[in-house]
Known about the structure:
Layout: H1 5-16, E1 20-25, E2 31-35, E3 40-42, E4 45-49, E5 55-62, E6 65-73, E7 76-79, E8 87-89, E9 101-103, E10 112-120, E11 123-134, E12 136-140, H2 151-160, E13 164-165, H3 168-176, E14 185-186, E15 191-196, E16 212-218, E17 226-231, E18 236-240, H4 249-258, E19 262-263, H5 266-274, E20 283-284, E21 290-294, E22 307-311, E23 328-334, H6 337-340
Amino acid sequence: MTCTSSTFFYQSALSKIVITPLRVNISHSGVLYAPLGQAIIIPCSASSSPLMLPRVKWTLMSGRTETQILVARGGRVKVNEAYRGRADLLNYRSSPEDLSLWLLETRSSDSGHYRCEVQQGLEDTSDIVQLKVKGVVFHYRDAMGRYALNFHQAKRACETVGAQMATLSQLRAAYFDGYEQCDAGWLEDQTVRYPIQTPREPCYGDMDGEPGVRNYGMMNPQDQFDVYCYVEEMHGEVFHDPVPQQLSFQGARSHCRAARAQLASAAQLYLAWSEGLDNCSPGWLSDGSVRYPIRTPRERCGGRQAGVKTVYRFINQTVFPEPSSLYDVYCFRGHSRAEHR
Length: 341
């Protein structure tokens, strides 16, 4: 066979191409943290020579469940219906080596292990990173009754218990995780809203018969409602201290001091609940309220819904208990500076 000059040139060029295997890398080491209700980019990059537009699959692994988030192939990205409008590959079409996942309005249920899997030709490889979404939204009511807080009082009420007013994104994220509360409350944008999973007559609001976050719109700051607060982290631990004889509010405060701790705040108890605390014993908190955290619902512990349960003086769920009433106690002990580092 006669080799033409063009054939020789082509074979010579092929001999100079260095083919490297496909590699996938998530550059973040350790746990990746994201605040509730915010956007996050989970990094992932691919490298090989040559690198064509690869097939990409992102999967969430939580417990024993695997959920496909999206698949990209040939320049097209197909997003799972459950993530529609909330997940995408920002640079896939313009930069085939950048396969980072963009996730909007993070929810607690987004916590888990994320796998970035890449396929090119016969090669298939992947990398994994853990994501933990931090923060919890909770409803808060004045000690003396329902709908007793104007906008400025609501802001102070959240701050007093160690939290801040929730944003709409945070309340929406909590709603999509199953949160329901049929009480109108202030948000930080001066709107008044509440989340409803199961529509019923007293809770229809502006969404007659439909689930969703009800909206009263922006209200006069002197109007009075409850409030939705948000807390993201605490540097310490909440613990329940069973006592042989239950304590009054002052007795509970002294008990925590004797344990080199202090009464836990409502925000700290809600955050401890979101991280797994479960106890069916009502106990005093620093604001004079009595509450208890339930992760696994049972009839004798506040009914069929998980959450932080509140004990009220009256059957219409208003007014905190008398300070002389006897209950257990929830204390908070902060980490030392050395531990915090």
